[in-house]
Design goal:
The protein is mostly helical and 199 residues long. It has two domains: 46 residues; 126 residues. It is 75% helix and 0% strand. The longest helix is centred in the N-terminal third of the chain and has 49 residues.
Length: 199
Amino acid sequence: MTFFPEPIRPSEGRQEDELRVNPIEADKHGREEYVLIKQEKQKRDILYGAFLLCCKALIEGLDLKIDADRADPISGTLKEFKTFLSLLKERDHSDDTFFCRQFAACWIRLHQALPTLTRAKHLSSGDHKKVDTLIQEINHYPPNEDHKLGYYLSSMATNDWLPVPFREIVKRLYTDHKVNQIGSFLSQWIELIDDFLQR
């Protein structure tokens, strides 16, 4: 005789049947979640796009400033040179080796930027004359000396020495400004640079 086991019957108190959701309601609920997720994604995309536009505007602004400096390197170099002249007005830097070397290096950068001055189309001939006058005055200061300030500035950039005559010239510039104030050579040179920069 064959014995067949009695089938297992489900328990009568199943609670899963009570929690079962109708397929139509479940479908609506899924669509609502999808719409909410889609709206959240759109908001995120809009915020991300606004952020990128702000970044782009910032970068373009910086690029314009950098391009302006590249297009007119003589102005930046003249501002730097003016800073050195202003520092010479305030204090005697004749014994400051670091200052003298930086001053000479700025002088060399100014000479290196001069070819861009001749190619600049937005500058008038008066602007060219102001820079030429500044360089000529520095190259010929002080009068009645064998070697001038321009010579020492050019030599110091290539050599590793701080000559005594150069230190005396720097000291003379400082004392000249203390005595003459507005009429000093330093004031005249700074005025030439200011005239050029205000074009």
